[in-house]
Specification:
613 residues, four-stranded mixed beta sheet, 61% helix, 4% strand
Length: 613
């Protein structure tokens, strides 16, 4: 064969692989656009599996890593698409879902007042107000960007995560195993099974700082020069402080992580080339900082977190002590049994893939510090998994955003090793096709990684509202109903409430209603909300129990969806059935209420007097 023909053959094969990957990615984007168009136009019959297949196709440039090192620019499109799914899926182009709405409410307060006042937010925003770092950053960008606040908030945090999270995962993976494994690690992270994955909430910022903290520890363990070690320690101090001031769950998880890591590296097997005492000192610094912050700022909510955890663990260990009739929240009312199994299988498969490489490197004593972090990450997954049977079932599906910084590089290393044809030749117990067909191992690991990415993307709540069967499982607080009427009502509430002389000075006139009403009138309309709305709608008439929580000047919001779908009340759970016309119509006939606002969705009544019993 002539030299020019040989050169052409060598160039053609890699080019063919890249072209095939890019064409598959393009077809995936076309499919995703089609799916989003159908969902947003209300077309019936779109299957969630089709959405997941388009995401797997979009990730095609990553699959090249199982054959050779992929080109970084080709990986950007899949990363951007998956990390921006929240704003892409927005049904009405504004912030949606309760947690992001009240995070936005806290950010709006920072913008309006110009300073941070912990503990002053409305509803859920009160808890968020104790952790200002991410919200201050978003507020600063909104103030300097020519965008409405509710639209700007929709995009800022997801874009920041696009710039930060993949770079952190890639950096950790490359430092441990090389560029091919790092690319696959990023691919697996795109399938993180977290319910809040890429939602603009405080955990999103906390995850960034968590990853940077782990990266700083890895840099510290690998640094040779004293100056480099000092830079890594300074980086840890900065981002560790940011964790404490950004998100409560991230702080607690990282404290557990550092404590377990400090104990592990006391053993010589896991000790890096630096004194074990240094990591212990960083652990003591972080815990002291966290305790000081709890004592000074978050004391009012810390014991609420503690009681929730104790109650959940008690119910898990001793279910006979659970209050009879107490319902356990479902894992997801929009999931079929097959989809729940797929999601669980993705989580377990990632765990096992990482475990294989952690065990292998533990035996060979390579990367001892990384192995120690891998053991901590896998232990954290294992410890939190039983909580899935308790009221804290969201915790196992949120800690993956933290653990996957370490789990995905180890899982990727397993897949890269399995993708080599020579790996299977030494094993007689494996299928003959894996030993004799050169393309079989890469095809198998590509299928495994694609299944993990698809299964993991079942967890985020980003697209869930589009797949809720109507009317069996759809609730009144679905983001689909946060439309024109809701935004108009929120604008009315903001204008009316701020000018009402009986409410504005003391911030006392509360809004009562279902979760949709709370999201609209409190999250966007800045009206105070309180717990207990369910008792106002429980019966066809208001009894003494209902009147006890009402004050003159309070508002009751009734939405027409309550008679069609099950209402969801603030911290009270989902109502078992839709309400009757009598349950919501009593406010219109009661002389103690006055109608002050009405559109096709909402009727808002003001409490003019209190019924005496």
């Amino acid at each position: 064969m002539r030299s020019d023909e040989l050169l052409a053959k060598r160039v053609w094969r890699p080019a063919t692989l890249d072209i095939a990957a890019l064409v598959t990615c393009l077809l995936g984007f076309i499919g995703l656009i089609y799916v989003v168009y159908r969902l947003k136009t209300g077309a019936v019959g779109t299957q969630r599996a089709f959405l997941l297949i388009t995401l797997a196709m979009i990730c095609a440039p990553f699959y090249v890593a199982f054959v050779r090192t992929p080109k970084i620019p080709f990986l950007l499109a899949p990363i951007i698409a998956i990390f921006l799914l929240y704003p892409i899926a927005a049904p009405h182009g504004v912030v949606y879902s309760t947690d992001p709405i009240f995070n936005f409410s806290f950010t709006q307060d920072l913008i309006d007042t110009g300073f941070w006042d912990p503990g002053t937010g409305l509803a859920f925003a009160r808890t968020y107000s104790f952790y200002p770092v991410g919200n201050v950053f978003v507020g600063y960008v909104i103030l300097n960007a020519p965008l409405p606040a509710d639209i700007g908030y929709l995009w800022i945090e997801p874009i920041l995560r696009v710039l930060a999270i993949p770079a952190i995962v890639y950096s950790i993976g490359r430092r441990l195993f090389g560029p091919r494994t790092a690319a696959v690690a990023v691919l697996l992270y795109l399938g993180t099974p977290s319910i809040l994955f890429n939602e603009p909430v405080q955990q999103g910022f906390g995850t960034i700082f968590f990853g940077l903290s782990l990266l700083s520890l890895l840099l510290l363990s690998q640094a040779v020069e004293v100056r480099a070690q000092h830079r890594a320690q300074v980086m840890f101090v900065v981002v560790g402080t940011a964790i404490v001031m950004t998100h409560h769950l991230t702080s607690y998880v990282f404290a557990f992580w550092l404590g377990a890591l400090s104990l592990l590296i006391l053993r010589r097997r896991y000790r890096p080339d630096l004194p074990a005492l240094r990591v212990g000192i960083l652990f003591v610094y972080f815990v002291l900082l966290l305790l000081v912050y709890i004592d000074v700022f978050t004391y009012p909510i810390f014991f609420g977190h503690e009681q929730t955890l104790v109650s959940a663990v008690t119910n898990l260990i001793a279910p006979e002590e659970t209050i009879p009739g107490t319902p356990r929240p479902p894992l997801g009312r929009t999931f079929t049994t097959f989809e729940i199994t797929w999601l669980a299988a993705s989580l377990i498969t990632m765990f096992l893939l990482a475990l294989f490489t952690v065990r292998r490197y533990r035996v060979t004593r390579h990367h001892p510090f990384a192995v120690a972090n891998g053991i901590v990450a896998l232990s954290l997954i294992f410890v939190t998994l039983p909580l899935i049977a308790t009221a804290l079932n969201y915790v196992p599906l949120r800690v993956n955003e933290y653990t996957n910084f370490v789990v995905t590089p180890f899982a990727a290393a397993t897949l890269i090793r399995w993708g080599r044809s020579d790996f299977w030749k030494s094993s007689r117990r494996m299928l003959r096709v894996l030993r004799e067909k050169k393309l079989a191992p890469p095809a198998v690991v590509i299928a495994i990684s694609a299944a993990i990415v698809m299964g993991g993307n079942l967890a985020p709540i980003t697209f869930r509202m589009f797949f809720e069967p109507y009317p069996q499982y759809q609730a009144t607080d679905s983001p689909l109903f946060l439309g024109v009427d809701s935004l108009r009502a929120a604008d009315w509430a903001a204008d009316h409430f701020s000018t009402d002389p009986n409410c504005a000075p003391l911030n006392t006139c509360r809004i009562w209603g279902d979760q949709l009403a709370v999201d609209v009138f409190s999250g966007f309309g800045d009206m105070p909300a309180d717990f207990g709305s369910a008792r106002l709608f429980a019966n066809a008439t208001l009894d003494a129990n209902a009147w006890n929580i009402l004050h003159i000047g309070d508002y009751v919001a009734v939405d027409s969806l309550m008679t069609l779908l099950r209402p969801n009340f603030l911290h009270e759970g989902l109502w078992p059935t839709p309400l009757t016309a009598a349950q919501i119509g009593k406010f219109a006939t009661d002389p103690n209420f006055a109608l002050v606002y009405q559109d096709e969705t909402f009727s808002v009544y003001r409490v003019m007097s209190i019924q005496q019993f």
